[in-house]
């Protein structure tokens, strides 16, 4: 308890110093001019020392990312020359991230497709689930595009920083034939080397379909190898993410040192845009779907309250999955439907993540000052929607996918690091919507199959629960 008061004692002057820093940046200086700047600078760094003590005791990667973000902001403002030399940290982290994307996307997509060869056995249910997943995630994609183009959260950064910004040219116009041909790989090794994510996706999809059609004695060894590759890449990602605090700190130090605090205001605007878009998605898409499918809303809301809260608090879909499956069974969704639809949905029905990625990708283009036509925006977010399949269990998966995709569209990476500064707050909302969407999907498919039990009052509490697969 005493350590908490000590941290609070250090943190209060830091907060005061940060507020004055923001007031200076916005031109509102009611008291900043009456006190020496060195006083507020000392307050900020004293507060950071106290915060470091608190974060070290907690040992959370998210807290370390937030702490290094604050250090980067303070260093970029107080010592721009030193801050700009730290770009090497973000560049090194970015290189590590780029090594993840091709094997991770290949392995997860192949396992997601070939590993569900039992779709032939579940027949109509599998087809209905996949059709529902793609329709709903497409709506999420369009709502995300509409929201970011309406608020234009990334617009204005380059105009404010003028010559300090990196010079970027808009992508050369492409014909429809060029776009179509660019999707298909001519050499998979070349596609991996050049970071052509969509070409890797197409190769992985066709490879997965071919593997699913292969006889079991040949399919099983290759599928086992791919599953092993997927697991190794998950662990590889965990290791790389230990460098995320340094990468984020270096990137924000460089960004603030070079461009000032303007990108941070745009990031906050993006955060508000995301929450507004997710609320709109739930009210305009998921609620009408529930009404059309005649899902009992009161019982459904009561059932999902706990798993959605778990997802929001932990930012982990997997942490909420077991409770979500139990909750859906308790309101009348048969176990066999729950056991198939929900794990599959964690690969193919990431509503919140799809919406977030569409926002973030266009934000990067807006921040870079690169105009994109609606067709180019669609191609980019379609790429993101495909590459995000199957990586729901990967920490900071959205960062990995987003960095790889914007790079393949010749966009800079620095806006992604600005986004990462508020990623924890964004992750909470999008993960909660992912869980909500998958819970509703299982109920909708059950109704579509005519197997939803309207007057069901929950499973027998004395029954031994069957083991439910987690994909």
CATH superfamily of the largest domain: Sodium:dicarboxylate symporter
Radius of gyration: 24 Å
Which percent band covers the strand fraction?
under 5%
- List low-pLDDT spans: 28-33, 159-173, 460-471
Shape: globular
Question: What is the residue-mean pLDDT, rounded to a whole number?
Answer: 75
H and E order: HHHHHHHHHHHHHHHHHHHHHH
Number of helices: 22
What count of domains describes the coordinates?
Answer: 2
| Structural class by SSE content | mainly alpha
| Strands, total number | 0
CA-CA gap between termini = 41 Å
Helix/strand layout:
Blueprint lengths: L1 H25 L10 H22 L2 H18 L1 H5 L2 H28 L4 H4 L1 H28 L5 H5 L14 H8 L4 H7 L2 H17 L2 H26 L2 H16 L2 H31 L4 H18 L2 H14 L4 H14 L2 H18 L5 H14 L9 H12 L5 H7 L2 H26 L23
Helix pairs in contact: 1-2, 2-3, 3-13, 5-11, 5-12, 5-13, 5-20, 7-14, 7-17, 7-18, 7-22, 13-21, 14-18, 14-22, 15-16, 15-22, 16-17, 16-22, 17-22, 18-19, 18-20, 18-21, 18-22, 19-20
């Amino acid at each position: 308890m005493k350590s908490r008061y000590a941290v609070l004692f250090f943190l209060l002057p830091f907060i005061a110093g940060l507020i004055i820093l923001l007031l200076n940046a916005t031109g509102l200086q009611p008291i900043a001019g009456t006190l020496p700047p060195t006083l507020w600078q000392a307050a900020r760094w004293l507060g950071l020392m106290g915060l470091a003590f608190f974060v070290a005791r907690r040992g959370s990667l998210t807290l370390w990312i937030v702490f290094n973000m604050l250090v980067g902001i303070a260093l970029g403002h107080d010592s721009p020359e030193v801050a700009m030399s730290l770009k090497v940290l973000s560049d090194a982290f970015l290189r590590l991230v780029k090594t993840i994307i091709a094997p991770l996307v290949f392995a997860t997509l192949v396992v997601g497709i070939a590993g569900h060869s039992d779709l032939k056995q579940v027949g109509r249910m599998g087809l209905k689930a996949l059709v529902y997943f793609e329709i709903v995630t497409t709506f999420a994609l369009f709502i995300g595009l509409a929201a970011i183009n309406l608020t234009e959260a990334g617009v204005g950064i380059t105009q404010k920083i003028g010559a300090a910004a990196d010079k970027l040219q808009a992508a050369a116009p492409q014909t429809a034939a060029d776009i179509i041909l660019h999707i298909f790989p001519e050499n998979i090794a070349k596609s991996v080397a050049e970071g052509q994510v969509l070409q890797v996706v197409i190769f992985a999809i066709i490879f997965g379909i071919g593997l699913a059609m292969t006889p079991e004695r040949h399919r099983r060894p290759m599928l086992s190898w791919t599953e092993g590759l997927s697991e190794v890449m998950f662990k590889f990602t965990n290791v790389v993410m230990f460098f995320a605090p340094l990468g984020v700190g270096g990137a924000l130090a460089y960004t603030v040192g070079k461009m000032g605090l303007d990108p941070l205001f745009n990031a906050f605007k993006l955060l508000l845009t995301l929450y507004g878009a997710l609320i709109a998605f739930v009210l305009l898409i998921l609620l009408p779907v529930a009404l059309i499918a005649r899902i009992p809303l009161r019982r459904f809301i009561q059932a999902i309250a706990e798993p959605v809260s778990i997802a929001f608090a932990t930012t982990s879909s997997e942490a909420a999955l077991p409770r979500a499956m139990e909750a859906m069974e308790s309101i009348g969704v048969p176990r066999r439907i729950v056991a198939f639809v929900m794990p599959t949905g964690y690969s193919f029905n990431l509503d919140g993540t799809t919406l977030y990625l569409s926002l973030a990708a266009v934000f990067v283009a807006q921040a870079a000052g690169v105009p994109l036509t609606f067709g180019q925006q669609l191609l980019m977010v379609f790429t993101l929607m495909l590459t995000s399949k199957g990586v729901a269990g990967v920490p900071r998966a959205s960062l990995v996918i987003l960095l790889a995709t914007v790079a393949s569209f010749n966009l800079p990476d620095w806006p992604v690091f600005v986004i990462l500064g508020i990623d924890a707050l964004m992750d909470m909302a999008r993960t909660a919507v992912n869980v909500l969407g998958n819970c509703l999907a299982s109920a909708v498919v059950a109704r579509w199959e005519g197997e939803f039990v309207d007057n069901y009052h929950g499973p027998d509490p004395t029954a031994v629960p069957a083991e439910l697969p987690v994909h």
